[in-house]
Amino acid sequence: MLACQRHHFRLPPEVAYLNCAYMSPLMERVAAAGRTGVDRKFRPDLLTPNDFFDEVHRVKKLFARLVETDDPERSALLPSVSYGLAIAANNTPIAAGQKVLLLAEQFPSNYYCWERVTKEKGAELELISAPSSDAQRAAKWNQNLLAAIDQRTAAVSIGHVHWADGSLFDLPAIRARTREVGALLIIDGTQSIGALPFSVRELGVDALVCGTYKWLFGPYGMALAYFGPAFDGGRPLEENWINRRDSHHFERLVPYTDHYLPAAGRYSVGQQSNFITVPMAISSLQQLLEWKVSCIQEYAAQLQAPYLERLQALGARIEAPEARSAHLFGVRLRSEQVDAEKLGAARKKHGVHLSQRGDSIRVSVSVFNEAQDFERLLRCFEAAQH
User: Fold this and answer.
1) How many separate domains does the chain show?
2) Same-domain check for residues 124 and 160
């Protein structure tokens, strides 16, 4: 089993940071890579054309390994998740009268792009709400989503887990159903990639987009994406020079060309060769591959296991482990038992950092967490009892 990796980070001992779903702390090695990148700008005379491409290709190869796809050229470097989802939305064939399915209360970046496209094309945007009952909530939510996928469905765009409470979605079943009706499956992996195993090879998703600043332990202002064959002939959001064929020949950037790089090469952002963020992403991806994502998920599950019943006894309603991810789960309060204001004050007192998303207190667990973090969380719930 993977041991606690807190020594890679600068988290003070008095801080219980159960909030990686908000933003991960940087590892020392990732910060060092960024500082080295800053230093390179002191000497632009030492930069060569290869410097604009070699490290970008390394990121693509590492990301391809992480999400288990055989072709690194299907990876793209982006400035944000919203950028990648806009690429997917703009290049999904949608006819008037068709529909796109989302989950209710998804992160806004996976809503607004589809709202615009469906309005422009006379299609319908359908949101699949979570069941009101706590009993088998995630299982029923999956059933409702599967039932909504029909011959009118052009695309399903969801997360592997719900960003607010970690509800787990049955991607193999959803992929099988979308194939039956000829719909695309687009995944926002921001709250799962790097913490929950994911295989493009096995699932056959059409697109996957994830930010690097959460579970990938990378820089803010960067995202990574996979675009499958369905997007090979698509139109990028911008027309930049580096995504065109033969762009590595600086002396031959003109005359111009109509030809893009193959596969997902057309979709990467301009200035993708960022000499600060790209080395940081290389360092963080290397570390994740060394730890292994399956081991990270196992670590989160085993760390929290001794505390779940105790939290529930103190008024926390938590989905069963098999219905949610281990690295991210929601806590809903039994109001007759827990005073929310007292809980907030206790969290501040004990240095417990969490996020409130909707009616869910989001607990997110990673390799830097340890038993004392959950002990502090328990003390907060004990202090908040009516």
Assistant:
1) 2
2) yes
